[in-house]
Write a structure and sequence with these properties.
Helices cover 30% and strands 24% of the residues. With 79 residues, the chain is an alpha+beta fold. The radius of gyration is 16 Å and the shape is globular. It starts with 8 loop residues before the first helix and ends in a 6-residue tail after the last strand.
Length: 79
């Protein structure tokens, strides 16, 4: 599949309208569990998905070659 990195304003506006309710719901879900830190979402057209809750150590990752998403807990220790 060829990478197409062009999108019209109309197309992008449509994606935003579809996505915004889900993002607002995610914000509310995070607030309900008491997390108010920064969270990022990354997706690609090939099926890669990443969700990171910064400073919590938690992330979720699904690569394009995997069927299941996996959660991870970061390990951090001074040496």
């Amino acid at each position: 599949m060829e990478n197409n990195k062009t999108i019209t304003e109309e197309q992008f506006r449509g994606v935003c309208k579809q996505t915004l309710p889900h993002l607002k719901e995610l914000i509310e879900n995070l607030r309900e569990i008491g997390f108010d830190g920064m969270t990022s979402i990354t997706v690609t057209g090939e099926g890669y998905i990443s969700l990171d809750a910064y400073d919590s150590g938690w992330s979720m990752l699904k690569t394009s070659k995997e069927n299941d998403a996996r959660i991870r807990k970061e390990f951090d220790e001074a040496v």
